[in-house]
Amino acid sequence: MSTWNYNTNSDSETLASLIKDADAVVVGVGAGMSASDGFTYVGDRFKKNFPDFIEKYGWFDMLQASLFDFPTTEEYWAFQSRFVKLNYIDQPVGKSYVALKEMLEHTPYFVITTNADNAFYKADYDMDKVFYYQGEYALMQCSQFCHNETYRDDEMMLKMVEQQQDMKVPYDLIPFCPKCNAKLEINKRNAEKGMVESPHFFEQKARYEAFLNEHKSGKVIYLEIGVGYTTPQFIKHPFWRFTCQNKDAKFVTMNQKSYRIPDDIKEQSIALTDDIQTTIVKANHILKEQQHVSN
């Protein structure tokens, strides 16, 4: 069994020393990482952008709103176009995403995310190392799943935002499937329907699985960042299983909420509970300082 050398003085020092000592890092990113950069689905950000919808429906947050069964397609796209503009087209770069990318640049890594925002694109990641498991807000799919292609039209989304009135978009802006003429919808995984999985999705999946197979042994970190328990089957549970299968691995969870860790991997697990953005930015600074000194 390999010995890990890491510092436990603070969460940022622990993270920096673990990554420096790792042979590879598998990163699982959930909503908590984007939230730490200020891209929250609750509070002022939600209230400022959807006051009319909140008044009409009494929603508590954007997640609840995004899953709502709208009475008309015009209203569906009035909400979704604003949502896509806010959380994808116009969402600025996140500090924690940039710092994480810099921190991993000297270590083999791969990212799987249940987020569907633009964060990895905006931070200029190598997108051959990122797997969007739950879809992307900017993509559209056939609502009847008649074929496995996805579509993107930012110009149309922005027109929907600009031209909507009374929480409805003009009917002539509603997108339709080019194959069967059914209405298009956002390419986001749904608990009941799933989602259209395009050839690009399977290319991402194949690269991710190849990385996992290549790094089944050795000092591998399964780094879970801001992952809750809404869909544990995509990141949390597989990371537990991979850690259990490799006694040299570490399961590292970054979350201010405390979740149960299975007994069989407790000795291999580390929980970092400080603010996610602060911890990652400080850890990146520590690694940069160490590299500067060594040079």
From TrEMBL:
UniProt cross-references to SUPFAM superfamilies, sorted A to Z: DHS-like NAD/FAD-binding domain
Q: Which PROSITE patterns match?
A: SIRTUIN
Known InterPro entries for this protein? Answer: DHS-like_NAD/FAD-binding_dom (IPR029035), Ssirtuin_cat_dom (IPR026590)
Determine if Metal-binding is one of this entry's keywords.
yes
Q: Where does Zn(2+) bind?
A: C142, C146, C177, C180
Q: Which UniProt keywords apply?
A: Metal-binding, NAD, Zinc
What this protein is called in its record is NAD-dependent deacetylase
